[in-house]
Amino acid sequence: MTAAAAPARFTGRTALLTAAASGIGAATARRLAADGASVLVTDLDAEGVRRGAEEIRAAGGRVRDQRLDVTSPGQWAEAAAEPEPEPEPEPEPESWAGQRRPC
């Protein structure tokens, strides 16, 4: 997410986090996203996970937020049925007189 970020060791993986509107859940979501994971942040606090998801997106992470009551089997089914966030396309390098430049 930044030039000095850790290697993307979770690229290609998806993490579903509960209780992710604040505290340890939110911090874990930010860290996993920074390490390349797509994250689904959930909590009873829909506004809290929305704010957290906006922060992750602003930092370049792939995230989806959803209100989730972990005691509801129906809501678990909804969370599992939703597609994961779409990957952002990688820019294709171009060659200009022997120099590689991003598109």
UniProtKB/TrEMBL annotation:
The lineage of its organism: Bacteria, Bacillati, Actinomycetota, Actinomycetes, Kitasatosporales. The keyword Isomerase does not apply. Belongs to the short-chain dehydrogenases/reductases (SDR) family. Pfam families: adh_short. This is Uncharacterized protein. PANTHER family: 5-KETO-D-GLUCONATE 5-REDUCTASE (PTHR43669), SHORT-CHAIN TYPE DEHYDROGENASE_REDUCTASE-RELATED (PTHR43669:SF8). Residues 81-93 have a biased composition (Acidic residues). It comes from Streptomyces graminofaciens. SUPFAM superfamilies: NAD(P)-binding Rossmann-fold domains.
